Amino acid sequence: MHYVTAGESHGKALVTVVSSVPAGVSIDGSLIDKDLARRQVGYGRGGRMRIESDRALIVSGVRFGKTIGSPVALSISNKDWDNWLDVMAVNGPRPDGSPRVTAPRPGHADLAGSQKTNTDDVRDILERASARETASRVAAGAVAKALLAEVGVKVESYVERIGSVDCVIDPETVDIAAAEASDVRCPDSVAAQSMRAAIDAAASAGESLGGVFVVRVTGLVPGVGGYAEASQRLDARLGGALLSIPAIKGVEFGDGFASAARVGSQVHDPIIYVPGAGITRESNHAGGLEGGMTNGQTLVARVAMKPIPTLMKPLASVDIDTLQPIDASRERSDVCAVPAAAVVAEAEVALVLAAAYMDKFGHDCVEDIRASLNAYRERIAR
Ligand code: EPS
To answer: Which of 120, 247, 314, 347 has the fewest Cβ atoms within 10 angstroms?
Structure first.
């Protein structure tokens, strides 16, 4: 399963094409829209989210509620486009006096993007580099989640840090319903309150905040991914997908960086046999991945997001026209989008896992994938 997206933040629409979708996957459009809505909310989100109410129009690939084995195309309208018809006009020439953005923001794609593409208007870059594009990914991810649901795999997320406020949560026992009910996606209500206060303080100071969230996946069978070829290794595929999300600066699986400071016996998960449950583990330091494959335990990815680069109290920049010092441009922005990024990360993880399941169990239709999965389950059960 692959996806490609198109669309600018203030263009007419965001478009996604998901290809290699097997036939027979039940698609409930309201579940796609639910994920789009989950991405939009969150304490610290900016004014744009009050304009948009993202909905995916299913353009192709679904008939009578099920995929038919053709690419699934989805379109999300940008309501804000109505306010940008002149600035984002498709047809030329550029009108005299049309405003240009010339003050690149440190931390965004603005400067290197405009150097790379030889534009004198940073808007050409920021329109596409904007995290608005991640709505498309969430829509694509909802299709992947629908396939995973057919094989009993669930992808969820929660936030464990915003700025300097963090909490310790066990990914195996986390109360996901509490995370879903929280406007910072944090199931610890005391920490959540401090996170909100930190976001308020950052907003007052013209600052922005990053944080850390966890994506956990349950219901996985062992052996998905591969050890034999670099391109099959699931850690690499998941890591790449997560790092493709704007503002993501780090990913670890299981104990991740902390395991580098421990001895081996404290890091690896002893293998045990439990009658009824079969071969399993006493612990899950590995975060569900060993040798580039799932090992049947809960997959735990911990992801670090940097603070959003658009600052209401801007950093120093240089005007790309005059080369004179200037304040970085102030686009309307979020103070904190960590809860939203967690929803985007669910989508990226789901897309990688759906593709890896299809690599192992078949590409054509859900019935064959399920039959192959059941045969595999039976073979490895002892
Ligand atoms: C976003 C839409 C954008 C930004 C934000 C995320 O809309 P606008 O630019 O019209 O306000 O609010 O993007 C960024 C913070 C960024 O740095 O790219 C969205 O839909 O998530």
So the answer is: 120
